Amino acid sequence: MSPLPPFHKRSISSSLDGIRILPRVPMGSPSNLEDVELSLLSEEERTSAGRNLQDGDAHSSAGGAKTTAMSSRDKKAMTLLIILYLIQGVPLGLALGSVPFILREHLSYSQLGVFALSSYPYSLKLLWSPIVDSTFHPSIGRRKSWIIPMQLIIGSLMLYIASNVGRLMENPADNIHELTFVFTSLVLFSATQDIAVDGWALTLLSQENLSYASTCQTIGLNTGFFASFTVFLALNSEAFAEKWGIPCLELSTYLRFCSLLCFGVTFWLTFFETEGSESLDGSEMTVTSVYKTIWNICKLKHVQALIVMHFFAKIGFQANEAVTSLKMIEKGLGREDLAIVVLIDFPFQILGGYFAAKWSSGDRPLHPWLWAFWPRLAFAFLSTLIVYWFPTPPFSYGFFVFLIIHTVLQGIASTIQFVGISAFHTRISDPLIGGTYMTLLNTFTNLGGTWPKYFVLKGVDYFSEAYCEVKEAHSELLVKATECVSDRGKEVCSEIDGQCITERDGYYYVSAICMSFGVLFLVFYIIPTARKLQALPVYRWRINPE
Questions:
Q1: Which uninterrupted H or E stretch holds 499?
Q2: Between 301-313 and 434-463, two packed helices, what is the crossing angle to 10 degrees?
Q3: For 101, 160, 241, 506, which has the most beta carbons within 10 A of its beta carbon?
Q4: Which residues neighbour 413 within 8 Å (Cβ) at sequence distance 6 or greater?
Q5: What is the CA radius of gyration of the chain?
Q6: pTM above the 0.85 mark?
Q7: Residues 395-415: tens digit of each pLDDT
Q8: Cβ(83)–Cβ(214) under 8 Å?
Q9: Quick one: pLDDT band at residue 418, thresholds 50, 70, 90?
Q10: Is a pLDDT exceeding 90 seen at residue 304?
């Protein structure tokens, strides 16, 4: 189906769950749905839409005879988008990836749960995206009005962290709230920059090359994320640096480099990049009307059922995703080894996404999403067993290969679920308000994977029991110390020549609770509800225009 007339504003947003890239434009609809979509328009709008459809068909037939090469303008635009998304990916890779692994050496799981709150803004950006999309300074540009100040703030925050990293990271337990506030702010401003860049992509690229916007986001966001997560973790490891004879990369050095990159791009964007004229007219959706549309969508009964399903669907494997990697590092797996595993897993996820997209392209896009629940729950159970029987370092080559295979298969199952649910969201979203509809649905999808992390990490410490065993010359004095659960408590125990003994590891209890809930919720709610929702005709997901 050809693009709709320009009197409908498309507000596009992306989400991060792992690396999750949302479709930028509504997918093509089957021909038998076009009448349903056009029936939502007034007579005048229907005539205009029909004229655009005919023009689009004529253009497509003409284009079939001759393939137009990408213009230099579009190539320049793609380069700009990749750079802007890369800047966005750098703080996300730090806040959601490498920093929690570094902090694990000094914090308890409860304290890590507090830091996990820093990921919330990226899942909640729907709340302020209409404001970013509608408020701007005309002399600067609709999108640059937000991108420039956001990147200046991001660069300044990274400089602040770099200047205070010694104080913040030397004793992070005493600075956990400041760390959480700083990185939450970093993610908040990155999410705001993402809203503006997403909107700019719709006008920066020509209409025939608009689909490349997702490609730019995939390349830029993933590059920035993995540079701050996988690459930084490896280069920050003393063992990795010693093995390859290179200097160890400090967090402060990396942050200063990224801040300079951010300032440099912002300077170039301010003085050398001109944004095309773009303004809001009366026919476009206002901030108030977008919020009203979101509320009307949420009032649909089947949308409410879908929201409930999203809100609890990921609990079954939350203990695995939030804690397992930290437990492996605690038991001796090097950060550089984990970085290698994640790096190898990345291309397989992309390949899995390609085949998952073909699988989800039919009339039952939720079928692969439902199917992938079982292997994800099975891998969560297997991960728990791996942690329980984790070998003592050094690890054998066979175990490391097994760990890579396990991570790759687990990642493919996760990718299948993401592609399946994204295909379903694309199928049911009203094309008249596709961006708002898609953003709303994906917001609840992301929240389903974000909100449980705090409680999962808190639960690990809650169910854990440890004591400090102090041995004297001719007697044995046992000192119960609940703080022995954290690494700081273990350090205190070591200072008094004691040994911190874990009687009960809360990870296994939390993992059992999550998996049990996941299986029960899947069988008794998700499967029957998903089948009913998938069987609904597309027009049932539409809202009545006012």
A1: strand 498-504
A2: 40
A3: 506
A4: 372, 375, 376, 379
A5: 25
A6: no
A7: 888 999 999 999 989 988 888
A8: no
A9: confident
A10: yes
Residues paired with 467 in a beta bridge? 501
Round to whole Å and give the CA distance between 383 and 38.
50
Task: Look up residue 83 and give its amino acid.
Answer: I
* First-to-final CA distance of the chain: 24
Of 367, 317, 305, 372, which Cα lies nearest the Cα of 518? 317
Distances (CA, A) of 11 to 201, 435, 463: 11, 5, 44
Q: CB burial class (10 A; 0-12, 13-18, 19+) of residue 42?
A: exposed
329, burial (CB in 10 Å: exposed 0-12, middle 13-18, buried 19+): middle
| Burial class of residue 466 (count of CB atoms within 10 Å of its CB; 0-12, 13-18, 19+) | buried
CB 160 within 8 A of CB 260: no
Q: What number of helices (H) and strands (E) belong to the chain?
A: 25, 3
60: pLDDT confidence band, cut at 50, 70 and 90? very low
Q: What are phi and psi of 5, to 5 degrees?
A: -60, 160
What is the C-alpha separation between 514 and 317, in angstroms, rounded? 7
**Per mean pLDDT, which range of 39-43, 204-208, 224-228, 428-432 is the poorest?**
39-43
Given a contact cutoff of 8 angstroms between Cβ atoms, the answer to whether 160 and 104 are in contact is no
Token reading at 437: 């509809």
User: Is 420 within 8 Å of 284 (Cβ atoms)?
Assistant: no
Residue 362: both structure tokens together: 């039919």
What percentage of residues in the chain have a pLDDT greater than 70?
Answer: 77
- pLDDT at 475 (0 to 100): 55
Cβ distance 484 to 467 under 8 Å? yes
pLDDT band at 443; cut points 50, 70, 90: confident
Q: Which residues 6+ apart lie within 8 Å of 471 measured at CB? A: 477, 497, 498, 499
Task: Please list the alpha-helical segments (H only) found in 429-543.
Answer: 434-463, 487-495, 506-521, 527-535
Q: What are phi and psi of 109, to 5 degrees?
A: -65, -30
Cα–Cα dist 351/358, whole Å: 11
Contacts of 244 (CB under 8 A, 6+ apart): none
Contact status, residue 344 vs residue 408, Cβ threshold 8 Å: yes
User: pLDDT at residue 509 above 60?
Assistant: yes
CB neighbourhood size of 350 (10 A) = 12
Over 50: is that where the pLDDT of 162 sits? yes
CA distance 421 to 424: 5
Contact 421, 372 (CB under 8 A): no
Query: Rounded distance, CA 197 to CA 191, Å?
Result: 10
**Using an 8 Å Cβ cutoff, are 191 and 125 in contact?**
yes
478 — phi, psi (to 5°)?
-100, 125
Type of residue found at 175 = N
Read off the amino acid at residue 231.
V
Please report where in the chains the tokens 């609990």 appear, as a residue.
315
